[in-house]
Amino acid sequence: MRRALDYLKLSSAHADIRHKPSGPRPTALSTMEDSTMLDGSQALFHDLVFTIIPTALDVARMRQLEADISACGGSIFPFDASSGRMEDLQKVTHIISTTSDFPDYYRALDLLIHVVKPQWVDACLKISKVKNPRVYSPDPALFMNEVVICCGNIPEGDKEAIEGGVIASGGQYTITLSKQVTHLIALDVDDQRVQLAVSKRLQICIVLPHWFDDCLKVGRRISERPYTLPNPEVLNIEAGAMPSSRPSPQIRDATNPYPTSGSLPPTPAALEKPRAIRAFNGKKVVLAEDLQLNDNLKGVITGLILAGGGKVTTNLDEAHIYVCNYREGEDYIKSSQQNKDVGNLSWLYYLITHDTWTNPMRRMMHYPRPRDGIPNFKNYRVSISSYTGEARVYLENLVKASGAEFTKTFKQDNTHLITAHKQSEKCEAAEEWGVHVVNHLWLEESYSKCKEQSLTAEKYTVFPSRTNLGEILGQTEIDRDAVEKTYFPKHGKPKAVKAIAEPNGVPGSSAPKARPNSGPVAHSSPLAQKNRRTKTTGDVATPVASRFNEKENVTPGSRGAKDRALTKLHDSAPDIAKFEKEMKRKGGVIHGGRREKDAEAGDGSKKPQGRDSMTSKRSIDEVDEEDEDIADDLTEEPTKKNKKAKKDKLTPIKYRMLISKDERWLNNPDKESKDKARLRELGLFITEDAKKVDILCAPKGLRTKKFVSAIASAPIIVATSFLDSALKTNKLPSPEKHILADIAFEKTHGFRLKESLERAKQNKHRLLKDWTIFCTPGVAGGYDTFKDIIAANGGQCHKWLGRTTHVTASKRTIDLTNKEVSQNQEEDEGDVLYLISEAKKSEVPLWIKFRELAKKHNMVPRIVKTEWVLFVTMAQYVHWDPEWELSEEDVDATKS
């Protein structure tokens, strides 16, 4: 994503300084289109210099592009495919390429040179104006750059969030349905625009909003198949087994960092691609000593390089390519600092086989690996689920390269399970055993960034419904800046990166396994004073960062009225406003963010000199000239142009409110959207996160998951009259005037809410700290409900399926140093192990196994009704009543 953001800023800042707008501003399809107009006397590409990278382009297409550019006043700078390098790159303003995988790509970014697909030229010619090059970038990090999204009748909050997200990830957004649209987002086939698209037979993908949400969560473009209307699989609870994924092309010939001698590539002569960048033509290659090649193998490889037009040398100073096994040694550092191509033997074989150049950092297994792996990874035992064939081989080798231990069999002492989806027995066992379940992005990005990534990041633990994440395997690239800082800084010597030994387990655990983030991480080399690429300084925020990362935005997967992502609008609006503000200032968003010296001088002291960005927010409401006729034909309702009326800043949040069982917005998403927007303007933020709540709103006392979980936050509990008053008067009333009173509820359940909230303030989410509670999947309300309630009070809940497992908490002791909490734990017997269950015959076999488990660990088994945990968490003190215990007699009584 870093490279995507770099290119976003580059494109906005460098949006053609040679042309100034004249005449009225035309409409534009893309929110981010550059609507620069040209003087009638000036050619379209006047004073622009192009280089065309011939890879994947046939001769006819090349000649057509050259002719079109020349006819519009542009000039062609010749490209020599045999060398692959452009010595006078600074003379070029635009590079046309179908891929970013050519040697001078990063150098072009540093020089603020646009890299665009050939389609950019066609689009410019079609409307006779220079379009924004960012949306035509071949950079795979801009994973939405071929997507044009239009929204149907979905809540305004979702539209705003989708608009910001698609722009930041390289795509285009339009409010007008036209033939240029690739994806129409709607809730059902009855949507007016869906009916219009079907009647006009538009070649368009009609998907649920879930698709775009899930794409942004994982930071990749995933398959639309499960989300496609009219029968989306994600809404079918009986969809069956998870579909298998197609082999990912990104890992082809890149699954092993050190191929064996039995996999020697063929002679490249028969595979020569005349229009590709020749890999070895005129190149000198150094084969490092750490490859440990025998004389015979070295001779074979030398012959293959010679057949490709290259030469093997021992003189590093004259070499172009350095091949080694590990990221260490003076030669590796020197070669990297001098910007030579540095790769491993697997990468060299790839070059020989295909005789075309590829960046060794493009694929994980093509770059030299760290000898000691990634810090902390030596403590981990990792297993894999739901990946097969090349994908499995790739992940096995990546686990080993990271320094972790790979296990083919998944056992209780594993620390991590990497899976493509959660429909497997291994995932069920992992949940029961308390093993971390993550997708492959956690492993790839930890390896890429030379540092273990936090497991709390949503993108590593999200598994979109009916999606096999194996489809996006291998799309992560080596992080150039992280590797440079760690292994070959420009100034100073790199420090050895070694895994730090940590004590196994966690406090209160008898399981002999390590957990992430449980110990110090070895710091790497000193920061380079000047990195190869410009770094962002954090001045510019992207419109989507907070939309998915903030906990208060976490909502259930349903797209029902109460689950719609309006909160995402409120949370992302400040970032979108900030982004828009940056886009409107002179020069636009500058490449890589403001330089450090500019940041020190302040916002107004230095303004970048460059092309005026014509990518203001107003283009959201406009349509390209090329689409005006189509738009008139396809759009049945006028668009509202109210974007300018929006405030740059929202009212500061005064209260965070969680609402339970208020049905005022049931089946009325538009009213919900408008009301929540009004409340947010008053300073009231409606959240779904029970751990961050100031006010809990409900019509009466309840025992819902939201209500019970929120009590642990000690909120003010108000009646729904609070919302009535706020919406009626357009002012926030005093919460104390709307306190919820439900004497009958309190009498029925044996506690007073006022006292519970006082104890919750004392407990501070620690009432069940160091508790491990088991729960069967068949309990009323569902296992996930009680897992969240227990977690809100500081405890852990594990699903009990009757399998032998580790107890992750031993006998508990009351912390007498914390008198406020301990006084609410006085009745805790310490050695009791709890299982939440139901009085059903099917549950009895689980009880037998549970008693064996407790006895094995010298603890007292207690099988309880859900009433026990509900009372404890609502009353906010530990208590026991024998009537809550379950036994076989209760099952017999239920039968009779």
TrEMBL record:
Gene3D superfamilies: BRCT domain. Residues 622-636 have a biased composition (Acidic residues). Transmembrane segments: none annotated. InterPro entries: BRCT_dom (IPR001357), BRCT_dom_sf (IPR036420), CellCycle_DNARepair_Reg (IPR053036). It holds the Pfam family BRCT. GO terms for biological process: DNA double-strand break attachment to nuclear envelope; double-strand break repair. PANTHER family: REGULATOR OF TY1 TRANSPOSITION PROTEIN 107 (PTHR47667:SF1). This is BRCT domain-containing protein. It comes from Massariosphaeria phaeospora.
